[in-house]
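From the shared-data thread, chain only:
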Amino acid sequence: MKREWTLEERYRVLEGPDDVKDLYAAIQKSWYRQKYHVQPVTGLSSDPNGFAFFEGKWHLFYQWCPWGAVHGLKYWYHAVSPDLVSWENCGVGIYPDTFYDNKGCHSGSAFAYGDDMYFFYTGNHRDENWVRTPFTCAARMDEEGRLVKLDKPLFGPREDYAEHQRDPKIIYVPEKKKYYIFIGAQTLDKKGTALIYESEELLSGWRFAGQLHVPGYEDFGGMWECPCIVNISGKDVLIFSPQYTTLPGRGNSTNHNVYFIGRMDYDTLTFTPEGDYQYLDYGFDFYAAQCAANVADPDKAILVAWIGLPDNHYPTEEEDWEGSMSLPRELRIRDGKLVQTPVEGLVSLRTGEAAADGTLPDICELEIAFSGGNADLALFTRPDGSGGVTLRYDEAAGVLTVDRRGMDKRFNEKVFEVLEVPVNGLRNIHAFIDRSSLELYINDGERTFTTHIYPTEGEHGYTISDNGSMKIYNLKASVTDEFVI
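Structure, as tokens:
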């Protein structure tokens, strides 16, 4: 039974580790704790934040509500990695402890400047009448790795837009000799957009430049969360999460993650797409994707997302925790579309090839090949071969259908349980299975599909059609699940 949370419970202030040590101990007993994905130390994780490479380490923060699987008072929780594969818990990075962020430190990004790393986030202020005022705030990482906030926000909200103004993404454009911040926003008539601010200085002088224009998409969703812009191989890529709208092929979901490839004109604040929007991931549970700062290779970006969706609910809520980060992905452009592949270092997790005896290990990697024609694959089947997550490819239609209705633990049934992926000739699927997630890279990353999954003790089989072959690799754990607050 879904727990009902009071406002006081959701927005309780974390006083110290003792407040959540018993909750941590309880959720360690959960079968569904991930082994090589970043996940909440307690409670809820949602959007990835402040993702960047700095002084030999990858820094990743995530939205964290300590108390349970509920959206309430948000902190930034910090994890670090030398290689995007092995992750270590570092504790809380940003606390909601000022006037400007008294009801939460919401999403944002990072930027390296000289010998320093700065973080930009939305301070969620609410007054005694619960009226929201979003502030764009900043913090600097000190020598001990602590984030020290600036005394005042960089700027406040604009009154000619709705209260939904958040998730600053900061970039530097050398040709303009300016910094730019993209803010996800909603117009007063409830249309999604992004606002752009500019400055010649990183921490001062910020002024409103105007609203982002994307021709043909003036009425696309009701809020654009987590805007992200990155240049790959000379092309600009605009990524964001449109809300409050249904989109073709996405069931009843009103939360999505999309991208455009095109050109950004900073003089006119216009992003001109080369084609229609594309889904960043075709799966049930993928949202708020963010690209890392300080990736040296101009031909790729590194992306991570939240495995989950706003307003959706998952079986681990009953255990008072929920959420996970996706595996980091390398993004490249091929034939006018993004190609996404797992970071190369993940191969280091392999501990050997498992026997292809019809049984899936609890955590594993699959390399699946198909020789052409229609194809069928079922994962997490029962001992008699029934049930599971089924993947059926119709070659004539060019569609791969993913159906998770056969699982014992069903969830978000009214949103979607069956989705289709356009695939031009199914050649291969590269899959990663963890205790409560399944990530598919289809045709060498031309399409991806991410979903939470909660197999029971009797759901560890698989079947594959005669035109398919599969290699299974056992994987070792790579995420420390230590209690660090």
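The first strand starts at residue 43 and ends at 54.
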